[in-house]
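REQUEST FORM: STRUCTURE PREDICTION
Request ID: SP-0412
Submitted by: Lab K.M.
Chain count: 1
Length (residues): 228
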Amino acid sequence: MPNGHEFRATPIDSNEKGSFKQADLDELLEGVGQGFTHVVIPANRNWDSIRTRLQFDCRIHLARLRQPLRDLTWDILKDALHTIVAMDEVWLDKFCPKDLRHPLLLPPPVFATYHETAEYWRHCDAYSAERFPAAEKLLEDVDRHHRRPDGQGGRSWLDARNRRYRVDPAGHARSAADRDNSKSFRFCYEIPAGFHYDMSEDAKIDIDGRSQTLTHCNVTPWGFVRRG
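STATUS: Completed
RESULT:
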């Protein structure tokens, strides 16, 4: 692999089309928990289960290979991997969060956007270099529409429902992965153990499947909510 990159294969037990088995998924998730956040999948495998589990955590590429898996050689796969790495190096520079104030860490299931910023997480998870400029412009729009003074001498995120999200440095929202010493990522950025937002303002929000009205709660980048 190019300098600065490490490759890990997750073998599957069939050269035919079909769904990933649980053992395949478990091995892949273990690798992600160790920092392998750029996932490449042969295009003729069922990848919905991986997308459902890892979308917006990792980069998930479908390798556009013309050969059947049984005819795939290392040279062909290596060329495809190098092409993907070259794209993702640019993506990392332009979009990967550099700190906890980055808008891509806000929780899509909870944070309400405006029409101008709708689905910006999906648009920034771009897999074509031609889409990068529009995604960069969209991030600027997110900052302009949602980054607001918080009345405490700083700035924090305000969504379209006037719910304010402040980064909480306390780190007390530890997940099961944190307790197992497994790393968690959002857009390939490692999330510190226990990281969450303090969300304030009166709001109706779902907790454990029930709608509740709260004035304050803790929200993780994945949209998990608990009372503050």
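NOTES: The first helix runs from residue 22 to 33.
Reviewed by: T.R.
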